[in-house]
Amino acid sequence: FCSINDVISPVVESSALHAARADLLHGLLQPQARISPKYLYDARGCELFEQITRLPEYYPTRTEAAILADAGPAMAQVLQGCEVLIELGAGNCEKVRALCRSLRPRHFVGVDIAGDFLSQAVCRLADEFPGLDARAVQADITGPLQLPPDLPRNGRLVFYPGSSIGNFDPADALAMLRRMHELLGPDGGLLIGIDLPKPLQWLEPAYDDAQGVTARFNLNVLSHVNRLLGSDFGEDDWAHHAFFNSGHSRIEMHLRARRPLTVAWPGGGRHFAESETIHTENSYKYPLSQFQATLAEAGFGVCQVWTDERQWFAMVHAHA
Ligand code: AVI
Asked: How far is the CA of 150 from the centre of ligand 1 (A)?
């Protein structure tokens, strides 16, 4: 069944809004202004991200899907015994379908910050897999996670696809992996997707596509911020800017002021010089050995890795 009414919100809405405002103000007032990438995902942002995943330049989604399809039988062998599938950042629950088909888990918990979008996706999954106990948990996965208390602890597999771990700075990624480890019993595991380093000619267009969908995705964060903060950012005043920072092995997304401008919000504001930027996202491209070392630091054991022919993307399985 699908427990659409069972969406768990960890905080009452008003305190969540208060925390979001404080977080946004803190970021906007730094010398290098920043907006956390989690604000990219309002309803419109989720739609735009779905469009990104279908762009010819955006290789991660289809490369990962191909690995999941090709290595499906081998993965099913390694992951057998998994009865409880927990997907973090589940979104439209598209990627977990293949695993549900091969593993036939009894329980599925999708966790995502976008509650309505998630609930609908979980309902569709429940329709497709009769007998699956499918639940939606609305939560910010960057914080402590409360799973339904009656969820069995044995046989858990945390599924974190899409290389979303790459959107966290290394220290935060380590902290997240540690929290994932805490969700698992001794027989649990993690199946995680990571995007590997590759030549610039493929990397940069994936974050600056010809149709301008990624630009719209990046600019849309300003409308979301306006709604949360009561600010007066104008999308036309800003330009999308994405580049690979090789020193940090990450794509950086910024919004660059097209002219000198002042943005106001209740109780304050900030002046931006022409070309000054707001940093909106990092997307780290981890060498495999470095990521495996991070997993070990987070408490995970022996890993199995599946990758594509070009070694652009990897699915890593780690034991608790
Ligand atoms: C969700 N995340 C893994 C995407 C990425 O590739 O870092 C977000 C994204 N940003 C721009 N395009 C896609």
From this structure: 33
Q: What is the pLDDT of residue 116?
A: 83
- What pLDDT, in 10s, does the model give residues 91-114? 889 899 989 999 999 999 999 987
CA of 81 to the centre of ligand 1 (A): 31
Count the neighbouring beta carbons within 10 Å of the beta carbon of residue 244: 19
In contact, 176 and 168? CB cutoff 8 Å:
yes
Q: What is the pLDDT of residues 203-222, one digit of tens each?
A: 999 999 999 999 999 999 99
Find out whether the beta carbon of 85 lies less than 6 Å from any atom of ligand 1: no
- Cβ of 213 less than 6 Å from ligand 1: no
Residue type, 29: L
Which residue's CA is the nearest one to ligand 1's atom 3?
164
List the chain residues with pLDDT less than 70. Answer: 1-13
Q: Is the C-beta atom of 60 inside 6 A of ligand 1?
A: yes
Strands (E), the chain: 2-3, 33-34, 84-88, 107-112, 133-138, 156-160, 189-195, 238-245, 250-257, 261-265, 268-272, 277-284, 303-307, 313-319
For ligand 1, say whether the CB of 155 is within 6 Å of any of its atoms.
no
Question: How many whole angstroms separate alpha carbon 244 and alpha carbon 198?
Answer: 11
**Ligand 1 pocket: which of 64, 95, 167 to mutate (most atoms within 8 A of CB):** 167
- The pLDDT assigned to 6 comes to 42
